[in-house]
Amino acid sequence: xxxxxxxxxxxxxxxxxxxxxxxxxxxxxCEKYRVPETFSxxxxxxxxxxxxxxxxxxxSDRLKAENLRTLGIVVxxxxxxxxxxxxxxxxxxxxxxxxxxETPPPEGWVYAPPDLPKxxxxxxxxxxxxxxxxxxxxxxIPSDDILCPKADGILQEIEQAGINCYSLVHHPKALIHTxxxxxxxxxxxxxxxxxxxxxxxxxxxxIAFLEWLKDLFNPALPTS
Length: 224
Fold this sequence. Notes:
Elements: E1 13-17, H1 20-32, E2 40-42, E3 45-46, E4 49-50, H2 52-57, H3 59-64, E5 70-76, H4 81-94, E6 109-111, E7 118-124, H5 133-138, H6 147-160, H7 171-181, H8 190-195, H9 204-217
Parallel strand pairs: 1-2, 1-5, 5-7
Antiparallel strand pairs: 3-4, 6-7
């Protein structure tokens, strides 16, 4: 009878995200910027699946792992940025973290207490506005693109007619996936579209995000 294999040991530096799309977008950006592979990008899962509730539920246990040095968290701000920040703030404070700002810093938050693992938080899209991963990715569409306004106009038209099947809060998801469906290779996933340069990794929001990642996981690297 074959021996049961032990689960892999958790990485000492981890970046937690809500889902596979977040994971692939971050992998693609890290590849473009040649970010050293000093951390893993992980999607927490349990019997209920994945998502923000699963991520928050397991956060305290993650922070207790013996070999953990650094934990980053990337989640959607959704409709209420401050409510999302407060939910993370509460979870971190119950794990012993103090001096957490009342509001998220525009450049993302990084904190290295002397007796606890280093932590960092980035709220999609930019730590200042409500939104989600797809709002962040929309900033990677070339500024002179002519299809995005047309896609947005069509979505607004069907929303005004009340024939949209998606919830209005998911307008950003509908927009980016409609726009991707109109490219030379229709329907590419967002991460693949970054790799293929359909989406531009040189945008200001992507550079700010990569600077936050570097500050969190590789602070010794020179500033780009």
